Amino acid sequence: DFLFFWGAVFLITTTLVALLKKESKELTPTKEETKGITDTYRLLFSIIKMPAVLTFCLLILTAKVGFSAADAVTGLKLVEEGVPKEHLALLAVPMVPLQIILPLIISKYTAGPQPLNTFYKAMPFRLLLGLEFAFLVWWTPTVKHEGGFPIYYYIVVLLSYALHQITLYSMYVAIMAFNAKVSDPLIGGTYMTLLNTVSNLGGNWPSTVALWLVDPLTVKECAGAQDQTCGTAAAAEV
User: Fold this and answer.
1) Within-domain flag for 30
2) What are the transmembrane regions (predicted)?
């Protein structure tokens, strides 16, 4: 139902944009920077070789390492500890209005000459929330009872997710604002696509590595099997 509703919203809004939005009549720049795919990639390579762009790419590719594990693994660990997947999915519903409102609020603080300041200010709070998520996973088994989990537990999870969304969107909107600000208007689409691709990659590779490291770094104990650490999948199966 959730997917069906938002699918319908996407269809309606994109159709309205197609029917009602008119193209700007303003004159476009006469200078054409790119003529085809080959020229576009040559331009991308020339952009990425710039020292400032290289420094920014290094920053954005490593900035999310500190909270990648908390972001990628927390939900899986809560399910592993017995929290129903359906309940966690329901908690995403009240996040939707927050996700709509947050960019509107945060954009006021990223509209100035230094949008990355918001990114830097949000990072320590997001790192602290990673510790809070770890505590949440540790606390989950202690509040579980035969009937499931108490209401106050879900309230704590919901508040944790809400605070996490605030820090996440503060960093996300700040990066988008910065990318838009520094992109050359003549090649804005190409420039923005390059920076946004690097930004997306900087969020995805740490999460992938974190998920891959979960098993090797998990300490397990085997009940009733002497001299077995259950450190590997094969040992745990035995």
Assistant:
1) no
2) 6-22, 43-67, 87-106, 118-139, 151-175
- Predicted confidence (pLDDT) at residue 96 exceeds the cutoff of 80: yes
Which residues contact residue 144 at a Cβ distance below 8 angstroms, ignoring those fewer than 6 apart?
A: 81, 82
C-alpha 198/C-alpha 61 separation (Å) is 7
Residue 31 in domain: no
For 22-50, write each residue's pLDDT tens digit.
877 765 555 555 567 787 788 888 888 88
Sequential DSSP letters for 199-213:
HHHHHHHHHHHHHHH
C-alpha–C-alpha distance, residues 230 and 215, integer Å: 10
Residue 189 sits at φ, ψ, to 5 deg, of -65, -45
Contacts of 37 (CB under 8 A, 6+ apart): none
Q: How many domains does the chain have?
A: 1
- For residue 64, what are the contacts with CB-CB under 8 A and spacing of at least 6? 71, 202, 203, 206
For residue 63, give its domain range.
Answer: 38-214
Closest among 232, 217, 210 to 72, alpha carbons compared: 210
Residue 190 lies in a domain: yes
Q: Considering the chain, what is the average pLDDT of its residues? A: 86
pLDDT of residue 33: 54
pTM over 0.85: no
- The Cα-based distances of 64 to 34, 98, 178, 208 in angstroms read 33, 22, 17, 12
The C-alpha atoms of residue 150 and residue 153 are separated, in whole angstroms, by 6
Residue whose tokens read 């040992």? 235
